[in-house]
Amino acid sequence: MPEPVTPVTFPSTFLWGASTSAYQIEGAVREGGRTPSIWDTFSHTPGRTAGGDHGDTAVDHYHRYPEDVALMAELGLDAYRFSVSWSRVQPTGRGPAVQVGLDFYRRLVDELLSHGIKPAVTLYHWDLPQELEDAGGWPERDTAYRFAEYAQLVGEALGDRVEHWMTLNEPWCTAFLGYASGVHAPGRTEPEASLKAAHHLNLAHGLGATALRSVMPARNSIAVSLNSSTVRTVSQDPADLAAARKIDDLANGIFHGPMLHGAYPETLLKATEELTDWSYVMEGDLELINQPLDALGLNYYTPALVSAADAEARGPRADGHGASAYSPWPGADDVMFHQSPGEQTQMGWSIDPTGLHDLLMRYTREAPGLPLYITENGAAYDDKPDPDGRVHDPERIAYLHGHLSAVRRAISDGADVRGYYQWSLMDNFEWSYGYEKRFGMVYVDYATLKRTPKSSARWYSGAARTGTLPPVE
Questions:
Q1: 281 falls within a domain
Q2: Is the omega angle on the peptide bond into residue 424 within 30 degrees of 0, that is, cis?
Q3: Which residues form the active site (predicted)?
């Protein structure tokens, strides 16, 4: 007789949510005074995205948000994390807010609250106003100050009703996929500029957090969402350990060092000294960046597996961040990435929930007492409706069960994890992959824009309603 299975049960206060971002779902790119962001420009540049896809319509959330919020409520979600389009609120990245742009987010927040769903706002999810990029973008210091002004505008408009805030989403992607490997907007391949961008994103976070606190109730929570990486080595050879140190500094320490501890890792500065002297880090910057946080958001998909590169094969070849002749890891050309073992998602990312557990325990040690949220976790699969129009995705259910079990194990081990936001609420524009990769728990027919909850949405709904993970089929 088989052993009885102990249910995986979460604390009653645990938040069950889903995440999206503005450019990936909103559409309506020319309505209400919105001007182009770097992703409008990038996606309309031939050869930049799969199939030449773009977010002009995306899944039309701008017009269909009442339907989408009703669907969230039907699924029993506690919380919804969305981003604000900077170009919709402040079209040139400067000056006063466009009220019609803010009004969309006011309506969205009101709709969420009327259904008992907690809104969580991310101020920046990669869509810099094109005019700011034309002025130099994130490698320019002024962009951080423009971000602080924008943060204040949104905080003033929504801070009375939104308690959960994130300044930036995955600044690593903004800096290194946008300015080093060029696979994300704005598509630049300038290693030193990518390091400058990273610093100015850090500065934007600190200035933005300060701006939010100046206009919002003290009860509100201010966080940042980092795609921190669990970096592993193929061996304990000193050369492989040194390779892992480089990648850990570039993936993690370059952001959590200043944000949590007020300093960049010395090993990072040493590894990149041939690219930059870091003279753009001005006196007082680290104090500005090192603002107290109320929580930390962590985005996790897969671990990294690295070694020292041999003479015949240098540079990243399996880091999972898109094909480019240019590396997103400045100063780490002597590091080789390897495909982690095990099953993979459609993105080619290995499925390894232990990496999420390890990440949560690392930040429990790194920032003791700081509440943690999983602000993104999910998987892309080749989902298709059956003849009856149903979308069955057992692989995603297994993925979610494994990773949520890892979260619960981390809580048992002492991690203060307060909530989980699945990526993503629905299928959408997946950046340079266009509409080829489906991460949603809700299937979107891109021809009709009809929404259909997948079987994983029903499974997740059961978890959200009961606080206990349903069995995997």
A1: yes
A2: yes
A3: 170, 376
The full DSSP string for 178-205 is: HHTS-SSTT----HHHHHHHHHHHHHHH
Tokens coding 444 = 């979107």
Mean pLDDT of 363-382: 98
Burial tier of 282 (Cβ tally within 10 Å: 0-12, 13-18, 19+): exposed
What CA–CA distance (Å, rounded) separates 186 from 80? 28
Q: Taking a C-beta distance cutoff of 8 angstroms, is the pair 99, 39 a contact?
A: no
- Judge whether 163 lies within some domain: yes
Does residue 473 belong to any structural domain of this protein? no
Q: Within its chain, how far is the Cα of 472 from the centroid?
A: 27
CA 19 to chain centre: 9
* Helix, strand, coil percentages for the chain (3-state, nearest 5): 40, 15, 45
Residue 213: give the domain boundaries. Answer: 15-466
Find out whether 24 is annotated in a ligand binding site: yes
> What is residue 298's three-state secondary structure?
strand
Residue 119 is encoded by which pair of tokens?
Answer: 């809104």
Instruction: Pick the more confident residue, 313 or 126.
Output: 126
* Domains: count for the chain: 1
- Catalytic residues, by residue number, are 170, 376
Annotated binding residue at 301? yes
Give the full edge-to-edge strand order of the sheet including 335-338.
231-233, 304-308, 335-338
Residues 407-431 pLDDT 10s:
999 999 999 999 999 999 999 999 9
| DSSP SS3 for 69 | helix
Assign residue 104 the CATH number of its domain: 3.20.20.80
Q: Is 125 annotated as a binding residue?
A: yes
Angle between helices 142-158 and 191-215 (to 10 degrees): 30
| 25 in Cβ contact with 449 (< 8 Å) | no
Answer whether residue 9 is part of any domain.
no
At 12-28, the pLDDT tens digits run: 999 999 999 999 999 99
The string over 285-295, giving b where at least 16 C-beta atoms fall within 10 Å of a residue's C-beta and e elsewhere, is bbebbbbebbb
pTM of the model: 0.97
First to last CA, the chain: 19
State residue 7's pLDDT score. 81
